[in-house]
């Protein structure tokens, strides 16, 4: 509002007068008459132009404040819009990453597929190359045979060519030998076929691929019982395999595969002439393992085999042994885990009972007619030795259970427990009637010495990992310990409490930590290497004499 307009504005209460002042107390315009009334009441009156200027300043400040708020709102709006755009941009980027990841997976699958197809082509090429090589060599031999045949044919009806005919015979023999060598060198390709081992674990597809292309040679096979086995952690196991044509022309290899995929080459021990193979292994970690067994480029039938490794636990019952025994007069005298993975059981007679580790009965092995097996020991090389109480000797059997050596004839009176130090080739035999332990040389059967230490019916012997000899002194209710030379070290006479008390110890073994397991008075007891009682294993049993060789 201009100053001129202000000066021309009439008072609402006094229309004849012009308003020219402003009462801030009444917040209204006043004329001369109004001025006198406000003045008397001591109101604050200022010039109308000053009031307008002051008010306009407030309005301007409010407008500026509103503009600031508007600007803040606009800034907030733009910020929200920017955030929205950024979020949408990020969502778009994530979608692109997902698509790229999908393309990577698809590309990997296609790559693995092409790799498998290429592997298959290579297997086919190897097979075709083998066939072509054999065909070429066969053609060469055929040409040589035809040449020799033509040469011999020319001598027909010419007896004067006898020398020529005789001279040609070595050539025919050489061709036969060449063909024999060729047949032993080449694998019959009809037995080899490609196979696809599927990797069904989708979590491992990207890291381990879809699977593997391998060749299976049907002439080479893994024992059906060994194609899927369960063992305890740290337990030594043996896998049996064989070549059906009993040839050893191919290099056999075995590889142990851990649950995480690491591979370790293993020793393969062929059995001479038989075409059989034995592969020993040990898994130090629980989980699902595999073993690959190959002959050249081809896998054995049943390879790779599955190995389930479980925590260490107790042994289960294997069978009612009595129902397999011909002579039930005597109870079980000893058991042992043989090198072929089967359990052997003896019972003071001329037979060995053979069981699978699962408990299934396999066979009854007949020995010499007058044999009486008391204790048996696995030497770890396919051979076993046993104490024969009837013939008063220790007998060695080969892997076919045929006798190949005897020890202590004319020396032993009642051989009982026995063990072998494979490093020194010393055989230790406890003689329960001679009351001593005899030492024999395994290589030539010589008597080296005997250990006498006031024994009364020494029933069993065992060696610790450190080479110390432990002897169960049956009637003296104690364990005697000697060094490798037979020098006395100490006596374990354990009788602190009912559980700890050793009464008539019959059998003894030590574990990998040199803890001592004793069969004593209808119970199995566990002691540490110093003879400190640890625990009783299982509950009391009816048989007083418990064999421990297999533990």
Short description:
By secondary structure, the protein is an alpha+beta fold.
Report what the structure shows:
A hairpin with a 5-residue loop joins strand 33 (523-527) and strand 34. The chain is α+β, with helices and mostly antiparallel strands and 551 residues long. 22% of the residues are buried. Strands 4, 5, 6, 7, 8, 9, 10, 11, 12, 13 and 14 form an eleven-stranded mixed sheet that branches. The protein has helices at 3-7, 32-40, 48-153, 162-185, 205-208; strands at residues 21-23, 28-30, 45-47, 192-198, 211-222, 228-232, 236-243, 252-257, 263-266, 268-271, 276-282, 287-295, 298-301, 305-310, 334-337, 343-346, 351-355, 361-366, 373-378, 384-388, 393-397, 403-407, 415-421, 426-431, 436-441, 447-451, 458-463, 469-473, 478-482, 488-492, 505-510, 516-520, 523-527, 533-537. It contains five helices and 34 strands. Among the domains are: 3-43, Double Stranded RNA Binding Domain (2-Layer Sandwich), CATH 3.30.160; 212-310, Immunoglobulins (Immunoglobulin-like); 321-537, Neuraminidase.
Which key phrases capture this entry?
551 residues; alpha+beta; Immunoglobulin-like; 4-stranded antiparallel β-sheet; 5 helices; elongated; disordered N terminus; disordered C terminus
Q: What name goes with the CATH superfamily of the domain at 321-537?
A: TolB, C-terminal domain
CATH level 1 name of the domain at 321-537: Mainly Beta
- What's the overall average pLDDT, rounded? 81
Q: What is the CA-atom radius of gyration, in angstroms?
A: 50 Å
* Count of individual helical segments: 5
CATH architect. name of the domain at 321-537: 6 Propeller
Task: Output the structural class.
Answer: alpha+beta
Low-confidence stretches: 1-6, 539-551
């Amino acid at each position: 509002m201009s100053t001129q307009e202000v000066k021309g504005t009439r008072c609402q209460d006094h229309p004849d007068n012009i308003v020219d002042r402003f009462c801030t107390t009444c917040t209204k315009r006043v004329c001369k008459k109004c001025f006198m009334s406000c003045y008397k009441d001591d109101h604050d009156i200022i010039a109308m132009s000053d009031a307008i200027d002051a008010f306009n300043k407030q309005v301007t400040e409010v407008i500026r404040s509103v503009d600031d708020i508007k600007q803040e709102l606009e800034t907030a709006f733009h910020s929200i819009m920017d955030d929205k755009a950024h979020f949408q941009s990020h969502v778009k980027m994530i979608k692109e990453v997902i698509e790229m990841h999908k393309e990577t997976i698809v590309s990997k699958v296609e790559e693995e597929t092409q790799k498998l197809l290429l592997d298959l082509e290579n297997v086919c090429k190897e097979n075709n190359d083998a066939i072509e090589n054999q065909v070429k060599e066969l053609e060469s031999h055929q040409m040589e045979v035809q040449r020799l045949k033509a040469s011999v044919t020319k001598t027909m009806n010419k007896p004067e060519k006898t020398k020529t005919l005789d001279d040609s015979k070595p050539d025919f023999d050489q061709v036969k030998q060449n063909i024999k060598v060729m047949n032993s060198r080449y694998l019959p390709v009809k037995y080899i076929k490609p196979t696809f081992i599927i990797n069904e674990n989708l979590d491992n597809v990207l890291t381990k691929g879809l699977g593997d292309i391998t060749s299976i040679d049907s002439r080479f096979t893994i024992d059906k019982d060994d194609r899927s086995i369960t063992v305890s952690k740290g337990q030594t196991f043996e896998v049996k395999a064989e070549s059906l044509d009993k040839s050893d022309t191919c290099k056999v290899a075995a590889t142990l595969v851990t649950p995480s995929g690491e591979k370790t080459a293993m020793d393969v021990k062929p059995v001479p002439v038989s075409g059989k193979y034995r592969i020993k292994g040990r898994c130090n970690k629980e989980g699902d393992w595999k073993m690959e067994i190959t002959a050249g480029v081809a896998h054995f039938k049943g390879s790779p085999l599955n190995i389930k490794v479980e925590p260490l636990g107790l042994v289960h019952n294997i069978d009612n042994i009595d129902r397999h025994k011909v002579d039930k007069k005597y109870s079980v005298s000893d058991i042992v885990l043989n090198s072929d993975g089967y359990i052997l059981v003896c019972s003071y007679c001329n037979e060995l009972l053979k069981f699978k580790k699962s408990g299934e009965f396999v066979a009854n092995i007949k020995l010499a007619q007058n044999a009486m097996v008391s204790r048996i020991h696995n030497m770890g090389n396919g051979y076993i030795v046993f104490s024969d109480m009837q013939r008063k000797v220790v007998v060695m059997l080969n892997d076919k259970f045929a006798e190949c050596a005897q020890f202590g004839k004319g020396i032993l009176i009642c051989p009982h427990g026995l063990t072998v130090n494979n490093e020194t080739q010393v055989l230790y035999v406890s003689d329960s009637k001679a009351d001593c332990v005899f030492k024999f040389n395994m290589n030539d059967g010589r008597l080296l010495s005997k250990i006498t230490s006031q024994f009364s019916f020494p029933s069993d012997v065992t060696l610790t990992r450190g080479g110390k000899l432990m002897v169960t002194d049956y009637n003296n209710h104690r364990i005697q310990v000697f060094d490798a030379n037979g020098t006395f070290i100490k006596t374990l006479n354990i009788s602190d409490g009912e559980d700890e008390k050793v009464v008539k110890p019959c059998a003894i073994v030590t574990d990998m930590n040199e803890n001592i397991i004793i069969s004593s008075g209808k119970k199995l007891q566990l002691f540490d290497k110093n003879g400190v009682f640890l625990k009783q294993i299982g509950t009391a049993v009816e048989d007083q004499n418990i064999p421990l060789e297999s533990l």
